[in-house]
């Protein structure tokens, strides 16, 4: 992507700019047609140093020259005051307080951390699925004390959640509610950040446990695939909105998560049962997935993939090493769509956990917010 746009550049900041997700933000934003990197933040270990000295650069793409001499800032609002958008790739141990302080300073935060995903006024948005949930932001701003004009927090999902909700949403859009979902993940080591899982724990091995991950998949999927309902507040009959968590057609989910010796690219084996009888055939499911177009793409978000879901016909695809870079990791890959003898249909999903699983999702969320006029451009 080249920086070619009639829009005046929109200044953005990156918190956690030295981390795995932060580095992917830098790679993507350095060539973004609308956004220009204005400020970088990380821990006090990095603050005060030129970015090239502070970071342990691990991207395949070379470090963009524009950021090499930028001085890394402490993660406090003042150096980011001119940013219309602040992206966060902060460690969850510190993201809560820092992101809340940025919101209170009336800054728009797009976060990858888990801290606010369960907040009833914070949208959990996978941009290729539920950008409509951004409508809750007015309520988040109004309920903040004091009320905010520009500041808010938008979160994107856990990297595995993101991978499977995209095909699941495409199927619900075509065939109606999913009733039951079984998912088993094969998650890359980059999902744990850098340096992540020690090599002696993961080489020649599979670790059948990732702390908190199964609960995230089960809970976040319901918030993302569910809708938003109006409720009457006890305070003066004011109409508030709440996430319905897919309550109208309760969704049973069981997730099992494994760490595997792959550098980038989460795979998941998914089986689904539909509410409708008879269920769609594997051929109908393949066609619906391939035909799905996201609202973000239709609205003209420059980072949205042209093909949201690529369905592979070969029996041994997708594979992390061969398919994760397809469309710069901005879409998802599906394969092996077939009948499930226990539920209805089963298939494999692959997604780049650092791109659409993290940084790319945040960036498309911000693009949608610009197009909807939620962020000043
Ligand atoms: N990796 C993935 O695939 C993925 C996918 C989805 C979501 N996420 C989420 O995204 C976030 C970042 O993940 P990551 O994999 O990029 O982690 P990471 O590689 O460990 O990077 C963490 C970043 O947080 C900064 N940081 C740590 N302590 C800080 C402090 N006290 N004050 C300010 N900054 C501090 C680090 O700065 P220093 O370099 O100065 O220490 C670094 O920039 C996490 O919340 C993670 O759960 C990750």
TrEMBL record:
Pathway: Amino-acid biosynthesis; L-methionine biosynthesis via de novo pathway; L-homoserine from L-aspartate: step 2/3; Amino-acid biosynthesis; L-threonine biosynthesis; L-threonine from L-aspartate: step 2/5. It comes from the Eukaryota. The keyword Transmembrane helix does not apply. Keywords: Amino-acid biosynthesis, Methionine biosynthesis, NADP, Oxidoreductase, Threonine biosynthesis. Coiled coil: none annotated. SUPFAM superfamilies: Glyceraldehyde-3-phosphate dehydrogenase-like, C-terminal domain (SSF55347), NAD(P)-binding Rossmann-fold domains (SSF51735). Catalyzes the NADPH-dependent formation of L-aspartate 4-semialdehyde (L-ASA) by the reductive dephosphorylation of 4-phospho-L-aspartate. Mediates the second step in the biosynthesis of amino acids that derive from aspartate (the aspartate family of amino acids), including methioinine and threonine, the latter of which is a precursor to isoleucine. This is Aspartate-semialdehyde dehydrogenase. It comes from Mycena albidolilacea.
């Amino acid at each position: 992507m080249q920086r070619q746009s009639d829009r005046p550049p929109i200044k953005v900041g990156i918190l956690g700019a030295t981390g795995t997700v932060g580095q992917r933000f830098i790679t993507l934003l350095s060539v973004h047609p609308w956004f220009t990197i204005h400020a970088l933040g990380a821990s006090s270990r990095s603050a005060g140093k030129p970015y090239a000295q502070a970071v342990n650069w691990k991207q395949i793409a070379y470090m963009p020259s524009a950021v090499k001499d930028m001085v890394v800032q402490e993660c406090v609002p003042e150096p980011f005051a001119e940013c219309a958008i602040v992206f966060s790739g902060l460690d969850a141990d510190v993201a809560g307080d820092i992101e809340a302080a940025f919101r209170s300073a009336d800054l728009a935060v797009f976060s990858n951390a888990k801290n606010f995903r369960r907040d009833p006024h914070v949208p959990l948005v996978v941009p290729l699925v539920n950008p409509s949930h951004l409508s809750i932001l007015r309520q988040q701003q109004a309920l903040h004390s004091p009320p905010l004009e520009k500041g808010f927090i938008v979160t994107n999902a856990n990297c595995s959640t993101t991978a499977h909700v995209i095909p699941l949403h495409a199927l619900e859009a075509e065939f109606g509610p999913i009733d039951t979902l079984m998912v088993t993940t094969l998650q890359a080591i980059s999902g744990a950040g850098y340096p992540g899982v020690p090599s002696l724990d993961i080489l020649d091995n599979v670790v059948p446990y990732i702390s908190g991950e199964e609960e995230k998949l089960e809970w976040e999927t319901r918030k993302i695939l569910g809708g938003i309902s109006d409720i009457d507040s006890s305070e003066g009959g004011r109409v508030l909105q709440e996430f319905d968590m897919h309550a109208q057609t309760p969704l049973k989910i069981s997730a099992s998560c494994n760490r595997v010796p792959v550098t980038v690219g989460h795979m998941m084996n998914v089986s689904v049962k539909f509410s409708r009888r008879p269920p769609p055939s594997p051929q109908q499911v393949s066609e619906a997935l391939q035909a799905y177009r996201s609202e973000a793409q239709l609205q003209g978000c420059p980072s949205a993939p042209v093909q949201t879901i690529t369905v592979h016909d070969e029996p041994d695809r997708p594979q992390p090493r061969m398919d994760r870079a397809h469309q710069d990791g901005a879409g998802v890959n599906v394969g092996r769509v077939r009948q499930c003898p226990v539920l209805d249909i089963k298939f494999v999903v692959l997604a780049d956990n650092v791109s659409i699983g993290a940084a790319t999702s945040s960036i498309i969320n911000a693009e949608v917010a610009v197009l909807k006029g939620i962020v000043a451009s």
